[in-house]
Amino acid sequence: MERHFLAGLRRIFPDLAPGSVLATRLARVRNVMAVPTVGYPDVVPPVATNVEGLFVVNSAQIADGTLNVDATLGVVERALPLLLSDVPARTVRAAA
Fold it and tell me: Is 74 in contact with 58 (CB distance < 8 Å)?
């Protein structure tokens, strides 16, 4: 499998140096999807909490997908406007 993965990666990034990929792992899980809860979209926890300035963004807010990276990033993308709406410019810092 590693050979197939690296061949595909080289098709996308033809200039990839042979030593650039330090490790690969393959995970095979028998049951990977959580059992959906009926009515869960109606009780998904909100991003804003009752504590001023405290927000929660996590996989509990995925109501219409699986626990994959795309769904998790979708939660973040939907939360960003709220998270950044009242933040003074001086408190927003670029990553170091």
Answer: no
Pick from 15-19, 46-50, 69-73: least confident: 69-73
Contacts of 25 (CB under 8 A, 6+ apart): none
pLDDT at residue 88, as a whole number: 58
Rounded Cα–Cα distance for residues 48 and 82 (Å): 8
Domain-by-domain residue ranges, the chain?
Answer: 2-91
Q: Write down the H helix ranges in 1-96.
A: 2-12, 69-85
Report how far residue 16's alpha carbon sits from residue 23's, in angstroms, rounded to the nearest whole number: 14
